[in-house]
Design a protein that fits this description.
Blueprint: E1 28-31, E2 34-40, H1 41-46, H2 50-54, E3 62-68, H3 74-86, E4 89-94, H4 97-113, H5 124-133, H6 140-149, H7 153-157, H8 161-165, H9 172-183
Parallel strand pairs: 2-3, 3-4
Antiparallel strand pairs: 1-2
Helix pairs in contact: 5-6
Length: about 190
């Protein structure tokens, strides 16, 4: 844990792991490869540059942001989600301090006891295949074809309905569905 977090209310809910404090930038460090940050949405509204400043020079393989939702502002959640997506940061939303503490505790225990943190076989193709497979109208053959035709996510995001429809096995209905998924904002 970062020394700045001594006495933080969240720490009273972290009971199953030993707390060690240091001066390293970040929130807590369940292993050598992972850094967990905490963010209050209210703090983000008051200080919009906080998120980018606290993650600026962090050299961990995995960054996890646990965001305490203490304001009903949907735009703040959307901004945090977008920031996390663009910077490869895992985002977890917590609705109170107890839940936030339990997430920290659970992540720490899982990383130390199960070896889940040692999974590093995920390359770009694996992640892309997994992500595209979540689209209900696409089967595995469609996903394989997509990966061969669109080697870059930016190309997928800028492709029109007709561009998707020209892919073998993708008709106009699937193309319209895919276009609506990749080009419309999240709500």
């Amino acid at each position: 844990m970062n020394n700045a977090l001594r006495g933080h209310i969240v720490l009273q809910y972290v009971n199953q792991t030993e707390l060690q404090f240091s001066d390293i930038q970040g929130g807590s460090f369940p292993d050598r490869k992972t850094c967990i940050f905490y963010l209050s949405l209210r703090n983000l509204v008051a200080n919009p540059q906080y998120l980018s400043s606290c993650t600026f020079n962090i050299e961990f393989e995995r960054l996890i942001l646990i965001c305490y939702v203490d304001t009903p502002d949907v735009n703040s959640i959307e901004a945090v989600n977008k920031f996390c997506c663009l910077n490869a940061i895992s985002l977890i939303l917590a609705w109170d301090n107890a839940e936030l503490g339990r997430y920290v505790e659970t992540i720490t225990v899982l990383l130390k006891e199960t070896g889940i943190g040692e999974c590093n076989n995920l390359d770009f193709l694996t992640i892309t295949f997994s992500t595209l497979s979540e689209i209900t109208c696409l089967n595995k053959l469609d996903v394989s074809t997509f990966i061969n035709i669109f080697p870059d996510l930016l190309i997928v995001l800028n492709t029109s309905v007709l561009g998707f429809a020209s892919v073998p096995g993708i008709g106009m209905r699937k193309a319209q569905h895919i276009t609506s998924l990749v080009q419309n904002a999240f709500h």
